[in-house]
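Minutes, project check-in
Item: structure for the 182-residue chain
Input as provided by the requester:
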Amino acid sequence: MKIIFYMLATAAIFSAQNASAQEEVSALSRQSFKNGLGLHAGAATGLGFSYRYFPEKWGIQVTGIPVFNGDKNYFASSAISVLYKIKEHKKVDLFGYLGNHLIFQRYQEYLYYPDPWPDPWVEPEPTYTTSRRYNVALGVGVNIQLWEILDLSLQAGYGLSSYNNSPLTTLLSGEIGLYYKF
């Protein structure tokens, strides 16, 4: 009877030590992922491929993509955001962010003449218009751990759109990203 008791006690001690060791490994592995690569789309945090460095409380995110269509038209998105971790949980982290997004566009426009039926008919000339737009927003977000190495980031904020253009407007920004952590 004593042998069975000692075996059960030994098994209980080893399982308790194993459980605490697994919790420590899980906590260490959650902390060891400081970098993230992924795809991100947001009004104030950019559109395209994204890199995140989030070591402790403060982090940084860089996002961007150029799109060329071969017809002298292009679209380019570049953004840099500052992140601050407010609360950390096992599967969900709450953070605040300040997003800065710069958008470059060049697109084709046609000049139309005031007379809709000119005589003789003249083909409208294409002209190119270039625009730059700057969006900035402040908000909060959550990182949801889907798997140990995959995070879904959902963000919402409020800021200014077309900050560098004359008709300054406010912006309700929504952001979403999927990140592979390493």
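Outcome recorded: The chain has a mean pLDDT of 82.
No further action items on this chain.
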